[in-house]
Design brief:
about 250 residues, alpha/beta, Glutaconate Coenzyme A-transferase, 8-stranded mixed beta sheet, 13 strands, 3-oxoacid_CoA-transf_A, CoA_transf_BS, transferase
Length: about 250
């Protein structure tokens, strides 16, 4: 039951080239930076990543992206990531963009053993009808487009069928975790982390504070340890290394 692994490098040592990864985080909040860095140092490539966004400010998944280690991204936000946009428009990267709420539910459904579900999000658009550019040819043309999805009517409203997502591995970050893998996330850093953790067949969690079993009130657990296979305790320095995406000063 003790799922603690000594180092991040050991925790991701069996992630092969070409693996699929669900990665938690939103912008710079709740991103498993230490595990991502360990993957980078290991040299793993050809990855298919499922995450809300693909890193920001040269951190998080942007580290792997800039190194050419990511082959495909399933996400909902490109934002100000210029390298992401460059690789996508240049035909170097396959990208499946989906509505943010749909992405969240696809991850949760996959983790809950639900193969597919119907949602009204995207009906009447290319999300349902197909034709979204998944890969460009580097010359402005579309090399690969999304296929059409099944649309069905319930009680007079049309819904599109979306598939649940399962990945080979998942990388997440939590504020607290115990040796059994029970996790607690801090405020907004919860974001996609529980959902990504559910979707991974092997889920690795880096935790800012490691505690013994029983120290977390069962009512306070955000993600049960059944969804987590490995836990890595961060050093105080790693836990405190948190960037701010946009600094603002109020009057």
């Amino acid at each position: 039951m003790d799922k603690v692994v000594a180092t991040a490098a050991e925790a991701v040592a069996d992630v092969p080239d070409g693996a699929s990864l669900a990665v938690g985080g939103f912008g710079l909040s709740g991103v498993p930076n230490v595990l991502i860095q360990a993957l980078y140092e290991r040299g793993t490539g050809g990855l298919s990543v499922v995450s809300n966004n693909c890193g920001a400010m040269e951190s998080g998944l942007a580290v792997l992206l800039a190194a050419g280690r990511i082959a495909r991204v399933t996400g909902s936000y490109i934002g100000a990531n210029k390298e992401f946009a460059r690789q996508y428009l240049g035909g170097e990267l396959e990208v499946e963009m989906i509505p943010q709420g749909t992405l969240a539910e696809r991850l949760r459904a996959g983790g809950a053993g639900i193969p597919a579900f119907y949602t009204p999000a995207g009906v009447g658009t290319q999300v349902a009808d197909g034709g979204l550019p998944w890969r460009y040819d580097g010359s402005g043309g579309v090399a690969l487009a999304s296929p059409p999805k099944e649309v069905r009517e319930f009680d007079g409203t049309e819904y599109v069928l979306e598939r649940g997502i399962r990945t080979d591995f998942a990388l997440v970050r939590a504020a607290r975790g115990d040796r059994h893998g029970n996790l607690v996330f801090a405020k907004a850093s919860r974001n996609f982390n529980p959902l990504a953790a559910m979707a991974g067949r092997v889920t690795v969690a880096e935790v800012e504070e490691l505690v013994e079993p029983g120290e977390i009130d069962p009512d306070a657990v955000h993600l049960p340890g059944i969804f987590v296979q490995r836990v890595v305790a961060l050093t105080p320095e790693q836990a405190a290394d948190k960037k701010i995406e946009r600094r603002t000063v109020s009057s």
